[in-house]
Write a structure and sequence with these properties.
Blueprint lengths: L1 H20 L10 H19 L5 H24 L1 H8 L3 E5 L2 E2 L1 H6 L4 H10 L8 E6 L5 E5 L12 E5 L2 E2 L1 H7 L3 H10 L8 E6 L4 E6 L5 E4 L9
Antiparallel strand pairs: 1-2, 1-3, 3-4, 5-6, 5-7, 7-8, 8-9
Amino acid sequence: MVLIMIRTTIIFVTLLIIMRLMGKRQIGEMQPFELVITLLIADLACIPMADSSVPLLYGIVAVVTIYALHEIVTLLDLKIKPLKSLISGKPSLVMNKNGIDDYQLKKNNLDVSDLIESLRTAGYFSLDSVDYALYEANGTFSALPKQDYEQTQTSLPMVIIDNGNYDSKNLELTGLSKEYFDGILKEQNIANHKKVLVLTADGTGKLYLQAKNEKFRTVQVTYPGGKTW
């Protein structure tokens, strides 16, 4: 028992020193290769702690080797610009002044729902409240809001159509029918809902509509019976 405690303490101190040497970014927002290294270090450190038959030196050498590899990759990342995007990736602009870039979303294994969730987390509840939005290479989300964007989100928008499919739960919550929105799509010269990338509706009657491969548009409507939420 005492031996395990001593071995664990030694590994802990070694890891603490290594993580400190890796710099502040390592304990903040990590690049993909840094995440891989962190996971490897955690796995390698567990072996000598859990199995006393494994020489302690093996674990320390493995962790130090990973640290050396980290320093080499970091140096390449900083000094050779073409390798930087290959090693760390590049930011992906998923929204611009034309609306949502579906290609960039799919390229990053994301969909409209993921984007809307990221926007809400950043404090933007309406898709037309930002001009640009992007995912950084380390996965963090950034957005450039429109001027006076607060005025565009006076009511909570609900996703009615997501990538060509109606959201039946949200339709039920709004109390509106597919036929009602199909009629609006026809008025906007969109043949059917399968051609819609996203349609949101808020309680004031403002619709955010973007057909696939087209620029978004906002439409102001009056709901049947003057419904609001």
